[in-house]
Structures
1.
Amino acid sequence: MVDDSLWTIFINASLVNNFVLAYFLGICPFLGVSSKLETASRMGGAVTFVMLVSSICAFGIQALLVAIDAPYLKLIAFIAVIASTVQLVEMFIKKVSPALFRSLGIFLPLITTNCAILGLALFQTNKGYSFVQCIVYALGAGAGFTLALVLMAGLREKLELAEVPDVTKGTAMALMIAGLLSVTFMGFGGLGG
Amino acid sequence: MSHSELASPPAPPSIWHMYRAMVGVGVFCGLLIVTVFQVTLPVIERNKAEALQEAIFHVLPNASTSTTYYFGEADGFKLLEGDGVGEQLVYAGYDDAQQLVGLAVEAQGMGYQDVIAVIYGYSFTEQAIIGIQVLESKETPGLGDKIETDPDFLENFKSLDVSVRGDGSALANSVVPVKHGEKTKPWEVDGITGATISSVAIANLLDRSAQYWVPRIRRNLRDFQGKE
Amino acid sequence: MAPSKSSTDEFIKGLWNENPVFVQVLGMCPVLAVSNTAMNALAMGLATAFVLIMSNIVVSSLRSFIPKQVRIATYILIIATFVTVVDYVIQAVSLDLYKALGAFISLIVVNCLILGRAEAFASKNTVARSTMDGLGMGVGFAFALFCLGAVREILGNGSLFGAPLFHDSFQNWVVMILPSGGFFTLAGWLLLFNWLKQRKAKKEATATLGLRKEVA
């Protein structure tokens, strides 16, 4: 029962309330996969696809749970669906492009514990989006995630060649960059409102 | 060390073992969840009802009791019996003399960061919004969240004019936001400096909601008169 | 030959040496989003700790009962159950806290820390040791979250647990309460930790060098 326009939802999910930089969802792959531009963009694509499928399934599951009056099974049902989707995507990628499968490595199954996907399912349920709104929300969230990941990868690739103090090497530096990116994205606030 | 016996590889677990584990764990988990759910449900419902009552009485000063109505275009306002899921609800507030003080309505709209949800009180006799409470807001702390605390801003809603046109089909004057300090008409909302978007959002969502509800409430006013 | 660890060792390692947030950098998602006030951070930390301890106990007691092939699925099932339990309990205890933490309580289920401990430790150790491990990691996690939340609240709001600390003229450093503040604060704490570790390593290196010189 939300009358947000589809465009507002998309802009909100991808820029204003970017899943990584505003909600801190999907940090593990964000910090882990974002060191190479190529892997980053592919991870983004995989996540967007899983988000889309999970979003549709979550919508269906929520409707079903309401019908049988078992709201407490929501979490378990969502996570089961997400895990299965990731499994399917993994098998699909393995068949279609073994090279991509190798380069994504451990991070593909890790998409299951990617808070972003579960977060997406939970948020859209709480907001009570309609079916079409859910799809747009998922696409926006995936696009935003990919954008953040790609930006981060580009920055980190450049940083590899720079001299940084020892104590900041690794995660601390990545977090500071993420913080700066987050501040930048705040500039999108009020867009699409 | 070199001639240690190689242990024979462990036999793969039978399907029965796997089923047993999954089903066993599933049953245990199911029981646990359902028990906790049943135990906490009454407490949660009570808390939610209390919070709602508090909000209603905050936006309808002088009200001491309230009844919930649901709305249908064809039948007007009817007393709510079930849980009201999926219905459009309004809350009527009555004072100690069982007189109708006003109606509390929930509204929401896009703010700066995310959706803002409010509840406001409408008084038929004054033809104005007489109170507002922000229910949910994720506005910028220190800036946008002033919509909840800034006393000058909240002054706007002690008597925000929402009178209707002659034919009663729409508001005579839309609720409009103005810059801080420029309010001249009773239907204008004086904004907060530095939190323009959030204050504009409040004005807009109130306007949208009032445009919808006020004519309908006035048309069906007799549905609310007095409680037995 | 590594000395066998007592139960207390399992507890202590979670607090400092293997602190889940500062050292292992695990379970980050909920860390940053809800650590904008000390109260929220502490509540979130304790909720996670509860789930961690309970699932460690259950996984450990059932470790001979669950075959390898289905272990991840059963672990997730167990963890999701306890998270659902925590979700309802928090809702019943404090609606305000629930509104502040929102969907992030449910997100505890994908906290890599809990699944990681179940897989790496609880499935291979006794119930007693697993409980201590869960307790240690949980307390370490809650402590780390509290550090984050406290710094963010003090700098960003001039208060701690809602009680104002500074004079009115204190300018709130608003960015601290915003998401970027979360990133910066965590980076700051990590920097501190790294620096302390480096200093300790240097000291130990010079100490061994000194010993060698004496022996030589």
2.
Amino acid sequence: MSKPSDLVQGTLDMLILKILALQPLNGWAISQRLKQISSDVLGVSDGSLYPALHKLEHRGWIRAHWKSSENNRRAKFYSLTQLGRKQLEKETANWNRVSAAISGIVRLKEA
Amino acid sequence: MNVEQWFYSLPLRWRSFFHPHQADQEVKEELHAHLERQISEYIAQGMSPEEARYSAMRAMGGLAQIEQQCRDARGGSVVQDFARDLRYGFRQLRRSPGFSALAVLCLTLGIGANAAVFSWLEGILFRPYPAVAHQERLFAVAATAPGESRPDLLSWPDFLDLRRNCTLCEDSFVSKITGSTLNNGDHAEIITGSIVSANYFDALGVHPILGRGFQAGEDVGNDSHPVVVISHQMWRKRFKGDQEIIGKTQRLNNVLHTIIGVAPEGFYGTFVGRAMQFWIPVSMQETFSSGGYKLEDRGARWIESYVRLKPGVSRAQAQQQISAIAARLQKDYPATNRGRGIRLWALWQTPFNHAGELLPTLEVMVAVVAFVLLIACANVGNLLLVRSFVRRHEISVRLAIGASRGRLLKQLLTEGLILSALGTAGGFLMAYWCRHLLVMLLPVREGEAMYLPGAMDARVMAMGAGVCLLVTLIVGMIPVFQIRHLDLNGPLKADSYGVVGARGRTWMRSGLVVFQVSLSFILLVGAALLLESLEKIRSTSPGFTTTRVVTTGVSLMAAGYDVPRAKAFQDELTDRLSALPGVESAAFARVTPLGYVMYSSTPVVVDGYQPSPDEQPEVEYNQVSPTYFTTLGIPFFSGREFTRSDDENAPPVAIVNRTMVERYWRGQDPIGRRLQVKGRWARVVGVVADSTYESIGETRKPFFYVPLRQDFVREPDLYICTTQPLHSILTAVVREVHALDANLALYEMITLREQVNRSTSPQLVAVTLVSTLGGLALLLAAVGLYGVMSYAVAQSTRELGLRMALGADAASLLRLVIWRGLRLTAGGVLFGTVAALALTRLLRQLLYNVSPHDPMVFGLALAVMTATAIFACLLPGWRASRTDPARVLRG
């Protein structure tokens, strides 16, 4: 199990929050969505997803509850809390600022 | 983590702590569901079921690790680890009950001694008046006199001016200790009370449970308000808890007092060391203290007073204002106040109660109990070291299978915590039992209730908890040093190749023993110094005969004697007693030397002595009857004793001591010269040798005597010089007193030797406490030495067996062990001597005529230490000498 780098680790939290902002999902669905949107670039293994989910739950950003999934199986669904929404806004703003700055630097080098 | 987050995570934490299995189960289920989905996905892609399962597992990573990571993410595992460590620690301690009991006992003694001393400091010095609100803003007020280092008292007019002008003070009140006598059948009971200003109870925030406190105006006038508030204890004991007590009367010092209030339970007044039984207003001063009416006399200094500062006012600010007030008083009343200042004292430095007397002892005690605690810690550390050595198999196995050193450290600290927590619990119990110990060590006159409680309050508990944490760290860290150097391979191999004399890994244990020995050596030296000092004090001549003189008093005031009757009684009793067989002489005096009663003092003018401009000669004196000097065996240099004819009708006379002659007459014979006492000229008729007046260790000071008849008090103490033993003279005196008046009662009768001994009780307390703790320290050090030596012997049976096989006999092995023990002891004594030479100076205040570096004392301590060390090594040595070479070498 490869440990994602710190940057990716922080990004993982933000991605999960972003995904859950759209709709409540279970762990499997989140992992599929992650693979889709990041096109496997970030290389998030399923192994690191669940500890991240538990961590976010404990920070009060997401909430979990059990309900039946599509195929009538009990599954744990995660949804964004009020606190999580605020955190997402904060992290998105932060991300935009940092990425703008970085891409500025990168362009500077190219010039 | 902010509050909102706590709101979300608290239920989760709750669950993962109390239902960890449920939480684990859910993780498992969740991961399992994920796996199932993945597998069916792979099958749909065309894999075989086994292949699909294998690929899914690989994509997921190790399930167990993920579960652990989830557990970590949930938090709560810190608590779980701790709980597990606690359980494990308890199991470890239960497995070796001998070790655990010894360790807990050591810590109980160490922590208990500390907690007890803290409780004394708290109850006696820092929070002496538990029923009083805002003690931290209370300060004692005393005067400073020119050329006098000791604090003096204020006069009532000075106090009133202070109270009027001190705007930074919330309240100012007076509380002056006094006494009275209650007749209890045939013996007199002394009760202690306070003369207080009318605002006393209000200022303290103490509300009587029955009746009222004093009203404004009740402290004005001369004997104009005979009212009394009695203590809860007196109400219960003497008045049987009478609910209708208010308005009833009680005769105190021959004046009927109306009982107006009963103080609440737990209020003992404001005099450290005594439980007050009654309070009377200042207006009753003349009834309760000698020397006439003083409320309008600015020169009569008798006021013991306190102020409570307004919130937020610092002591320095208040002192500044009060000094300004004193300066104004100097200017306005130069005749009485020239050179006099007023000073604030912290409650624990209050100059006019027992706090100051015990302060040096308590200061020393703080250091002493800290030593004892360190010795106890060293002992427990040593025990833990032995165990960590025994447990090195377990520990290296745990390290080998992947326990982090941090985790292991946590576990060892937890074990330390268990030990110190148990020790602290035991220590608190011990301190609770010992909190009244100080009173028991202080002998006082019969009936005079001493009250010196320790307080086990939150602050003391917090200090105790702090000590507990400190001990945990020290005790827990000691084995950690060992672990740090633990070689993973070494302990897994065989052992028992130690050598008795080897250094190597035993250096730490030996170091601890050396440390213990040096600390207990310091305590031994301290105890021996104090003991020698006490011996010196008790064997020093106080300047009067102590062996054949007994002292007592007769309760004339309580029996309602007026002055003429008292005079007649005193003369008659003296005559009757002097006529008794075996009685050489009998006399009266107002103040017994080395007692608690203060001498009168007066500004004096000496014929032919020109004082310097800022000097205001003031000398203490005593009122004594004829034959006082003969009775007490105080020798004359010249002149004569007072006689019966030196009475109120005769011209005033005085007898002065030697130092007074040197100070004011430059050594010339002053017989016939004059001395002005309280404004009256008295002729000097005799010169006597200096004796001790207030304490044995005091510096020589001028002192004089006046005839009792010329400055009369109704209830002086009685002295009898006799060849009879105490009990037979007591019977005879009671018989003679009752022959004169059957209503009279006698105070406790003691010899002057006993009086001297009682005056040295603070020293006795210091000696008792330091020797007890010194003994304890010695015992702990001996246990430590014993432990190290028996361990060394147990670890080196092979070497011992070899030595024996090569021809060493039992005696030489015994010598080997003892020699090794003595080497450790010598190291300790060396360090201890150096430290003691530096530290015993702190004892100087408690030492009388003993050098803090007395070689005799150091020699004695060395002898005791050596004997103890040999004793501690005997058993291990004996065991070494019993080594069976055949068995050991074959094994």
